[in-house]
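Handout, section B. The chain below has 365 residues.
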Amino acid sequence: MEAYTADDREILYNKVQETLKKARSNPMTIAKQKKSAVEVAYLEELEIEKFSKKLNDYKQLPLQAKSLDILQINLGYLCNQVCNHCHVNAGPARKELMSVETMKDCLKALDLGGFSSVDLTGGAPEIHPDFKWFVEQLSERNVKIIVRSNLTILTFSEEYHYLPAFFKEHQVEVIASMPCYTLENVDKQRGEGVFDASIEGLQILNSVGYGIEKGLNLHLVYNPGGPSLPGSQEGLERDYKRMLKENFSIDFNNLYTITNMPISRFLNDLKSKNKVEDYMNLLVDNFNLAAVENVMCRDTISVRWDGVIFDCDFNQMLHLPVIDKEYQHIKDFSKKDLENRNILLKNHCYGCTAGAGSSCQGAIS
């Protein structure tokens, strides 16, 4: 089975190119904000204990940031894939892309904020026409650069074939989505042919030293295919390493397990199967107080493609900016105010505190 047929690749590529011509012309509209508000209200009206009440019972309110360690930047929602678990609702028709002006505001904030890491995400961040320039600018600063890759972008078109060597040149840490080590499960969640393209992408990264050489870190991300919590991160990592090595001669560093967040496409899927309440009760019943200490919003801020600042990328998708309106845009960045801010909480936050906990860096307790 081919990763994509030639026709499939051409159709997707042309769609992305068509979208790029229209990009940066799709502001956050009132309609989109209302849609997000409806989603938030839906989760808040479920007959479950409110997340804020749960934290209050454990004397954890207000939940406050502890530091500014990671600057997470979403370069836009344009992607060459349409995954059914995607909380970003990304795809080849999304026109939202960060402007160079906003990128420069992010660089200024990075210079002022004392961040140790910059986490570039999307969509497929590599599709952004100014991605190369932005990474070069970041590499001039003393920070770890993380790129969240869907892997298939590496085989998508010749214009992206430069990426592995470019990543190596700038010591970029690659975190790649790989929800299973079997073709059937990956293609079911991410689309037909994605498994083969992902395997090819991993082999390409291995060929330049990723997952093998010191300093060229390659991490994989697992998330369940349905309404369940991830299994043991340590156990799954062992299984992944064994299966990928034996079957495809692939090496990688670590596996991160991430809980599916009950928002966007995954929430719609739960609704279609009448499983929203079951899944939310699963999250509530497995609430883990120890995970609260290390949720990602406590040392991270998330910047949307238009420069608006959020406590995390899940709040970003629900249009829930940081509480203080004076510092809701990256151009108004204030280290002092943001590193001590109170964090905005809603019921979807149970997704980060269930079981072993969940963050962009995997299990947290």
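Note. The mean pLDDT is 91. Compare this with the example in section A.
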